[in-house]
Write a structure and sequence with these properties.
Layout (H helix, E strand, L loop, with lengths): L5 E13 L5 E8 L3 E7 L1 H4 L3 E8 L7 H10 L4 E8 L2 H4 L7 E2 L1 H4 L5 E7 L4 E3 L1 H5 L37 E3 L3 E13 L4 E5 L9 E6 L26 H4 L4
Antiparallel strand pairs: 1-2, 1-12, 2-11, 3-4, 3-6, 4-5, 7-10, 7-12, 8-9, 10-11
């Protein structure tokens, strides 16, 4: 298990911003502040180490007794969204109950992050939409079987449907993690971050943003070292040969 610090947030929607070089970048706006440290987990007491974060104030009239007790311990309002983030014991020791965390305290511009959320529910779907199957040809003699799933198992052996068989069923509404996204910009005053590209979930859905588990720095796909242009006009393009490359 990769132990990385992160923040809880709410997906507000998508928009477009311009980079310093003029590139139009599609970004997702995520409100990630402030987060409240509502508890800690230690090896001596709980058998593992983690920090418990809360996000989005909840009205006191809607809180349970357990949530009210937790809020009393942190001197803060009850939180709607609470999650544990596993960390090393020495990292957990850096946080105290009741501490507020802002986006700038955890993330920096250009960092690589992972975003976890619940995907949009698509309802009950067939095999063509859900699994991208081809369907049957609309030829003579084929009746009402254009979008059917076809055979689902064997006869005598093994007399059952194999586990994991791709069939019709509920599509979406499952936990999804998108890795190695770029944290394009941190808006400290608004308590928001701008993430390059799309993240799971519908607007106003809760997400968990953590530091990337597999890399420390974001790297755009398709951007590498510039190719060395040939000075031979016979090999170089017309544009390069004319000095416009």
């Amino acid at each position: 298990m990769t132990l990385k610090i992160g923040l809880l947030g709410k997906k507000l929607g998508m928009t477009q911003v311009f980079a310093d070089d003029g590139e139009a970048v599609p970004v997702t706006v995520i409100q990630t502040g402030p987060n409240v440290v509502v508890g800690t987990r230690t090896m001596e007491r709980d058998g593992y180490s983690a920090v418990v974060l809360g996000f989005d104030d909840k009205p006191v009239r809607l809180a349970t007794k357990a949530e009210l007790g937790m809020a009393k311990a942190t001197n803060a309002k009850p939180q709607r969204f609470i999650r544990e983030l596993r960390l090393a014991p020495e990292e957990v020791a850096k946080y105290t109950v009741g501490q507020l965390l802002a986006p700038g305290d955890v993330f920096a511009d250009g960092a690589a992050i992972d975003v976890e959320g619940w995907s949009k529910g698509k309802g009950f779907q067939g095999v063509i939409k859900r699994h991208h199957m081809r369907g049957k040809p609309r030829t003579h003699g084929c009746h009402e079987y254009f979008r059917h799933g076809g055979s689902i198992g064997c006869r005598l052996t093994p007399q059952r449907v194999h586990k994991g068989k791709r069939m019709a069923g509920q599509m979406g509404n499952e936990k999804v993690t998108i890795q190695n996204l770029q944290l394009f910009r941190v808006l400290a005053e608004e308590g928001c971050i701008l993430v390059r590209g799309a993240v799971p979930g519908a607007p106003n859905e809760y997400v968990v943003v953590t530091q990337a588990a597999t890399r420390a720095q974001y790297k755009r796909r398709g951007l590498g070292k510039e190719e060395v242009r040939s000075k031979n006009p016979l090999k170089a393009s017309k544009k390069a040969a004319a000095g416009r490359g």
